[in-house]
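Structure first, sequence second, as always.
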């Protein structure tokens, strides 16, 4: 995207694996809880903010040490076997040990990350397929050759990440920082159909959770909701007229409306088979009734794009993007 030149300063030369043991080395952690982006309505301003594209995929940590490569999902599951192309390229990077933080995506014909295509590549929710087409956009480096980098500022970690990847254009690529005004970058991202942008404090260490060091600003809102039922339809793709959705309320699940677009025939047919196995006699959310609805246990979480909320807390212009896997650990939307 030509919204600005990538930020590039002289990379701090990463220290490569030494032949002698390093008595001052930091132990390589088995897992680091991820830093998460806090949702904001507007892009921040000021020179201390760095901006990147918001990728629409699965958050992964890629670990490499003497024993090999491990790819860990946000939920802590080992999915090395699910992303063989990323694992193979990680094994070839020029470092003794590292932990990359990034997003696995599958790109559409226009070069945009498509969550639905990634889900198809993985075989759907609970699938066992290997996503050969998935690539990793790496945006942080947390550990390198015996050294914990999480205490360093983002700008320093990014320098070392650039040095490690050194122009890679294969299945592991650098998520470029964009030198631009945040509001202008967001407008450009929205214009070309991206999900949104990420803003990060350049001087912040890597801190787990949603502390505000990282912000996400979306073009189209997208959140995770539970499926609590569906309306059968002989005329609709896969036999699903619409899905009924719920979020987390103060007293259990709360009905948030329905979605009837975004399916393909294959995705709807596969989804209906899963839903029919979860059929139950009554709705899981309070205050909802419907004739001809097949109620289901709220075991399936769907990623839904939408344009906003109605006055009675229902989704506006919702579209189905795909099912979230438990290993992805995406949080179900909580109503305020």
């Amino acid at each position: 995207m030509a919204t600005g030149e990538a930020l590039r300063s002289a990379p701090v030369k990463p220290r490569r694996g030494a032949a002698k043991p390093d008595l001052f080395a930091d132990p390589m952690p088995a897992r680091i809880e991820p830093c998460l982006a806090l949702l904001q309505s507007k892009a921040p301003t000021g020179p201390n903010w760095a901006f990147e594209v918001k990728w629409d995929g699965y958050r992964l940590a890629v670990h490499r040490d003497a024993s090999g490569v491990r790819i860990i999902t946000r939920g802590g599951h080992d999915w090395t076997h699910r992303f063989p192309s990323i694992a193979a390229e990680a094994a070839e990077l020029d470092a003794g040990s590292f932990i990359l933080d990034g997003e696995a995506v599958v790109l559409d014909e226009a070069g945009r990350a498509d969550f639905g295509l990634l889900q198809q590549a993985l075989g759907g929710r609970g699938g066992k397929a290997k996503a050969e087409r998935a690539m990793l956009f790496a945006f942080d480096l947390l550990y390198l050759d015996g050294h914990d980098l999480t205490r360093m500022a983002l700008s320093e970690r990014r320098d070392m990440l650039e040095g490690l990847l050194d122009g890679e254009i294969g299945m592991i690529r650098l998520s470029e920082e964009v030198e631009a005004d945040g509001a202008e970058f967001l407008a450009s991202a929205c214009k070309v159909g991206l999900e949104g942008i990420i803003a990060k404090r350049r001087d912040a260490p890597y801190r787990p959770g949603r502390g505000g060091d990282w912000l996400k600003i979306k073009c189209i809102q997208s959140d995770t909701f539970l499926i609590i039922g569906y309306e059968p339809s002989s005329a609709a793709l896969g036999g699903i007229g619409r899905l009924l959705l719920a979020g987390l309320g103060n007293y259990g699940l709360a009905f948030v409306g329905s979605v009837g677009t975004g399916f393909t025939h294959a995705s709807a047919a596969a989804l209906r088979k899963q839903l029919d196995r979860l059929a139950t006699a009554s709705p899981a959310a309070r205050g909802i009734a419907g004739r001809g609805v097949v109620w289901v246990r709220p075991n399936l979480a769907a990623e839904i794009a939408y344009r906003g909320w109605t006055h009675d807390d229902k989704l506006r212009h919702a579209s189905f993007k795909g099912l979230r896997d438990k290993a992805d650990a995406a949080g179900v939307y909580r109503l305020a």
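Margin note: The chain has three domains: 37-54+176-219, 56-174, 221-328.
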